Amino acid sequence: MPSKTQQINTLIELNDELENYFRNTIIPQLFVDANLILRKFTPPAMKQFKLHQEDIGASIHNVKDNFRFPTIIENIEHVINTGSLLEKEIQTTDMRWYQMNILPYLVQKENKNNGVIITFVDITLRIRDLKEQEKLIMEHELLLDTISHDIKTPLTSLTLTIEMLKKAPEKSTIKFPVLLEKIENGLLKIKGIVIDLTDSRRSDQQYKTAEELLDIEQILEDVRLTLAPQILESKATIHWEIAQSEILFVRRKLRSMLYNLINNSINYRDKQRLPEIYIKTFLEDNYFVISVADNGVGIKKEDQDKIFTKYERLSKDVEGTGVGLHLVREIVMLSGGKTVVDSEPGKGTTFKIYLKQQQNHSADQSPAS
Prior knowledge:
With 369 residues, the protein is of the alpha+beta class. It folds into three domains: 119 residues, PAS domain (Beta-Lactamase, 2-Layer Sandwich), CATH 3.30.450; 80 residues; 148 residues, Histidine kinase-like ATPase, C-terminal domain (Heat Shock Protein 90), CATH 3.30.565.10. The chain has nine helices and twelve strands. The strands form three sheets. A five-stranded antiparallel beta sheet has the order 2-1-5-4-3, with helices on both faces. Strands 7-9-10-12-11 form a five-stranded mixed beta sheet, with helices on one face. Strand 3 and strand 4 form a beta hairpin. Helix 6 packs across helix 8 and helix 8 packs antiparallel against helix 9.
């Protein structure tokens, strides 16, 4: 059995190793003991959260304002009491975003939690990139929607008109064939522009349209990060129950649908209560179903068709362009699915999107030899 001196020396060595680790790591980390006293922090934490050496030994209550995250103390106490890991996104006083991981500090000999170690991973750029990507996707989809609806329809009508002119029994002027040729050439040029735009979209790897086997929980996590500021500001809580996780679909389209539905739930929240959003996935018949339900203001029966109309907005007090739900329905319809809305004023809204399941997808295929 080691002597008391040997035990003390061992503890000193372990403490030195811990001190050395905290001094040299580049990741912001804090060590808070079970009494909520700040015991150690890494140099990056000193910079990012404006901590000072004199803060060591102080209660975490005295430095919590550095985080712009009012429930951090409750979160620390929860981890100490339960011994379970907790992950959240927080925004600091310098407006940066961090993935905060609170891990229990377990004393093996006594088998109890003696505090927590809090690690912060900077995700500011990721959130900005996701926001920019969502903006570009929206603009891209709007352009394609305009081409599809505002150009292709008159083109079809013009094509039919020309066919009728060709079949006309009499062509009263000598110039008629020349004019007809010019109309046909102009029509071909406009069609070429549409085809070029569509082909360039398909070849653009940044917005590739290829279907792939997706994990919906990963897509939801991306959407949640993109909407992190709105979620924080509105104090919204998002719950999900994923009975079916994999779907064969285009990644950016699935992200766009979920983004618009969740963002819509936050925007049309009831001011009298905190927003609660419930997301479920399941299989029904030959459909992959995604349900997004909220406790928001709800929608009148006579307005439930209007919400899918482009540029239609039921409230001018809510920020938006009136295209989000229109795009959701367009994406679903083009994939062979359907959109269902169930709502009652004052009781919230449930959107269900039904996406056709692909049979014998690549997961069932044999690898190439």
